[in-house]
């Protein structure tokens, strides 16, 4: 805040090894060994996967997803360490598309993630301009790869008001949409940490309302971020309640994906600290509700958990499918 080098995992807590109280949902370790009979044919309409590395080439993300038996995946489209990146290699793009076609990954089940350097809500003109240019570049890469949607953290207000921040984010999205056709921009809800926006559904709605082409804007709901922002999905029926609130404020027609992460922090802590499924404050029951919720059929459900040895992405994907009731 994925197989791949541990240093490239899409998370911000790689050096953290402590675990919070697991009483919220039980110890997921009891689910590590799951027979194939318990998972085969289950969750037919659920597309569970993980954020995977592109080390060695974009197509390696596809191979990693296949190896862990994921049915969807997320990836970065370039380096996270620099504003300026080499142009997309055309041969690599072709190889990526061939791999996706060969293994049956559809574009709507692939969710590229934006660079953490971007802050389209920044009041600093140089940062805003670089972020806007990077958004155009990211959407262009999606288009060249045959991908249809792109996920990003909305931004942070820094020394400006929330309203001004939302306005700038919408401005950057509208500009990028003018430059690149077809690709949908997917906003991620946030934990409310610091001056980040998007922790409350009303803030996401404030951006969406200003996007000119409403058919090209969506939302990815992150379970850890939602819980940390105060949406209690750990309660029985909590996932359904959150989705009802989202529908009331934003609209379910905008829901494009989910990030599946347990939370190190407690409800409303505003900390973006991901934990492995069933080992955090959210607990396993919420994820059982997610994988059995019909409203979440046919969209990517992406893991971004630490994935510690013995309970990495393959094991967590298998666990999640074992929770499916059909």
From TrEMBL:
Entry keyword set: DNA damage, DNA repair, Hydrolase, Metal-binding, Zinc
Basic and acidic residues bias spans: 11-33
UniProt KW DNA damage keyword: yes
Pfam families from the UniProt entry: AP_endonuc_2
Source organism, top-level taxon: Eukaryota
Domain Xylose isomerase-like TIM barrel: 64-322
Compositional bias ranges of the Basic residues kind: 1-10
PROSITE patterns: AP_NUCLEASE_F2_1, AP_NUCLEASE_F2_2, AP_NUCLEASE_F2_3, AP_NUCLEASE_F2_4
SUPFAM superfamilies documented for this protein: Xylose isomerase-like
GO annotation (BP), single: DNA repair
Cofactor annotation: Zn(2+)
Disordered: region residues: 1-33
GO terms of molecular function: hydrolase activity; metal ion binding
This protein's record includes keyword Zinc: yes
Xref: NCBIfam families: nfo, PRK01060.1-4
Family statement drawn from the similarity comment of this UniProt entry: Belongs to the AP endonuclease 2 family.
Name the record gives this protein: Xylose isomerase-like TIM barrel domain-containing protein
């Amino acid at each position: 805040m994925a197989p791949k080098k541990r240093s490239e995992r899409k998370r911000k807590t790689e050096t953290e090894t402590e675990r919070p109280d697991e009483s919220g949902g039980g110890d997921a370790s009891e689910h590590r060994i799951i027979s194939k009979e318990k998972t085969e044919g289950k969750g037919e309409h659920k597309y569970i996967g993980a954020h995977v590395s592109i080390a060695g080439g974009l197509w390696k993300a596809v191979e990693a997803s296949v190896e862990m038996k994921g049915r969807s995946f997320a990836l970065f489209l370039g380096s996270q360490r620099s504003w300026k990146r080499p142009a997309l290699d055309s041969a690599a793009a072709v190889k990526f598309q061939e791999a996706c076609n060969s293994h049956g990954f559809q574009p709507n089940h692939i969710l590229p993630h934006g660079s953490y350097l971007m802050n389209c809500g920044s009041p600093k003109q140089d940062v805003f301009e670089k972020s806007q240019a990077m958004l155009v570049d990211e959407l262009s890469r999606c288009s060249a790869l045959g991908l249809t949607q792109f996920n990003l953290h909305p931004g942070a207000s820094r020394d400006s008001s929330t309203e001004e921040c939302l306005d700038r984010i919408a401005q950057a999205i509208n500009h990028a949409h003018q430059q690149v056709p077809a690709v949908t921009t997917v906003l991620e809800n946030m934990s409310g940490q610091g001056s980040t926006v998007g922790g409350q559904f009303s803030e996401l709605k404030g951006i969406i309302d200003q996007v000119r082409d409403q058919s090209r804007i969506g939302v990815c709901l992150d379970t850890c971020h939602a819980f940390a922002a105060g949406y209690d999905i750990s309660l029985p029926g909590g996932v359904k309640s959150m989705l009802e609130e989202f529908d009331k404020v934003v609209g379910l027609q905008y829901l494009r994906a989910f990030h599946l992460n347990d939370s190190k922090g407690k409800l409303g802590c505003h900390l973006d600290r991901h934990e492995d499924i069933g080992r955090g404050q959210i607990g396993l029951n919420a994820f059982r509700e997610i994988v059995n919720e019909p409203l979440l059929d046919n969209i990517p459900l992406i893991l971004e958990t630490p994935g510690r040895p013995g309970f990495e992405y393959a094991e967590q994907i298998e666990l999640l499918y074992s929770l499916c009731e059909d």
